[in-house]
UniProtKB/TrEMBL annotation:
GO molecular function: oxidoreductase activity, acting on CH-OH group of donors
InterPro entries for the chain: NAD(P)-bd_dom_sf (IPR036291), Sc_DH/Rdtase_CS (IPR020904), SDR_fam (IPR002347)
Annotated family: Belongs to the short-chain dehydrogenases/reductases (SDR) family.
Superkingdom classification of source: Eukaryota
Taxonomic path: Eukaryota, Viridiplantae, Streptophyta, Embryophyta, Tracheophyta
Gene3D superfamilies according to UniProt: NAD(P)-binding Rossmann-like Domain
Keywords assigned: Oxidoreductase
Name of the protein this chain belongs to: Uncharacterized protein
Length: 445
């Protein structure tokens, strides 16, 4: 009698299953005995072909169904799980989030349009959230439950012209690590698999032969990855043998560069100075204001000297930011207000933006502009950084101070103080958080 397959009797949902890595994962999970719901967004022919291939054995009931679903739509995501239950008579055990998009124009961040940013986050980040939330609520509990999100080692390599893609995948990796903790006691694990460059249609789109060649030269094995290199790793995580792997990001086939700065003489002096100045190394969490100011001055000296030792006299006549203009968002209170006060003390002119009126902000502007012998040094603007009015901050700089800004510090952010688990997070809260914290920073940058 043949031994049971590792995933025999278990149901897996795979998004982005019509091609590329998602297709290979679905095929591999089927070889391990799983029933499959093949999620796809547009390529119905490829998805149906894969389902027919997996159902080719005439002496067994259907093992796979293809389901069209836009992962950025909550109702469509729910339908994937409904399809699993109706097709196979029970809840899904495994969820693989593989649907993703990449802007094959490869713009710099400065050239990225609002529409391309929003589309990337809608699929890669919002889609992963909706899928993970549904999985957290509906996967089988008590053992065998698995959530795996396919991210990217670009989160570490930080390739230029991939800003939106990298940001969208980095958000997913952070989210999954939190989710793994929230699923404690359910028997459901949550992990990410982050491949390096893999020879897929999405990878080659928009790249020249020379660009591909350069990427291949970076790969430790001297070749691009293949989808078959990725699927077995995901398969392992989905089996009982992968139960002890939880809250992890597995980076595959990618050399992570390590830059050691402490060999530079000036930074060796810096490290020694930090050690000798106080008893032991400074821990920022417990450092005094005096220690932090000393550390800031020393750090600034190293940076401003372009890695040459240079002392800054805090009592010097010329302040470090004299004549420079800074834009700061989220300045009504908290960290933003503190940053504004500090930059002002260093001599900067300030444009202070916030989405709400604040007496603290008004008091700061009044105080900075109190001297009748000097022109105004600060103005405050009421702005929502996520609704397309970021340009007004920069316009205000030029009209008020007669030149372009030198510095922007984005402190505007929100947090849901109900602190829900991911499984309980509403779409409205998720969307609002991403719009302010991620899209707002993108627009400002």
């Amino acid at each position: 009698m043949a031994a049971a397959l590792p995933l025999s009797g278990r149901v897996a949902i795979v998004t982005g299953a019509s091609r590329g890595i998602g297709r290979a994962i679905a095929t591999h999970l089927a070889s391990l005995g799983a029933f499959l719901v093949l999620g796809y967004s547009s390529n119905s022919v490829a998805a149906d072909q894969l389902a027919s291939q997996l159902n080719s054995s005439s002496d067994q009931p259907p093992r796979a169904v293809s389901v069209r679903a836009d992962v950025s739509d909550a109702d469509a995501v729910k339908f994937l799980f409904d399809a699993a239950e109706s097709a196979f008579g029970g809840r899904a055990h495994i969820f693989i989030a593989c649907a993703g998009v990449l802007d094959d124009k490869y713009p710099t961040l400065a050239a990225t349009t609002d529409e391309d940013w929003d589309r990337t986050f809608a699929v890669n980040t919002r889609g992963a959230f909706l899928c993970c939330r549904e999985a957290a609520n509906r996967l089988v509990r008590g053992g065998g439950g698995r959530i795996v999100c396919i991210t990217s080692s670009s989160v570490v390599s930080l390739r230029p012209r991939h800003a939106a893609y990298v940001a969208s995948k980095a958000a997913v990796e952070a989210m999954v690590k939190v989710l793994a903790k929230e699923m404690k006691g359910t028997g459901i694990t949550a992990n990410c698999v982050a491949p390096g460059p893999v020879a897929t249609e999405m990878f080659f789109a928009g790249k020249s032969d020379e660009w591909v060649k350069r990427i291949v030269e970076e790969c430790p094995l001297g070749r691009l990855g293949e989808v078959e290199d990725i699927a077995p790793v995901v398969g392992f995580l989905c089996t009982d043998g992968g139960e002890w792997v939880n809250g992890q990001v597995l980076r595959l086939g990618f050399r992570i560069p390590v830059i050691c700065l402490t060999n530079h003489p000036s930074l060796c002096v810096f490290a020694t100075a930090v050690h000798d100045q106080e008893e032991g190394f400074l821990e920022l969490g417990s450092a005094t204001h005096k220690q932090l100011r000393w550390l800031w001055l020393l750090t600034s000296a190293v940076i401003q000297g372009k890695w040459q030792w240079k002392c800054i006299d805090p009592m010097a006549d010329t302040l470090p930011l004299s004549g420079r203009i800074a834009i700061i968002t989220g300045t009504a209170c908290g960290m933003g207000l503190g940053v504004a006060v500090h930059l002002a003390s260093l001599g900067a002119f300030l444009v202070l933006g916030d989405c709400s009126d604040s007496p603290h902000l008004e008091q700061l502007v009044t105080k900075l502009n109190a001297s009748i012998d000097l022109p105004p040094r600060a103005i405050a603007l009421l702005v929502d950084i996520y609704v397309g009015v970021v340009k007004s901050l920069f316009d205000a700089v030029e009209s008020t101070f007669g030149g372009r800004a030198h510095i922007i510090v984005t402190c505007a952010a929100i947090c849901d103080y109900d602190y829900p688990f991911l499984a309980e997070t509403s779409e409205e809260v998720w969307d609002h958080t991403l719009v302010v914290n991620a899209r707002g920073s993108f627009l400002c940058c």
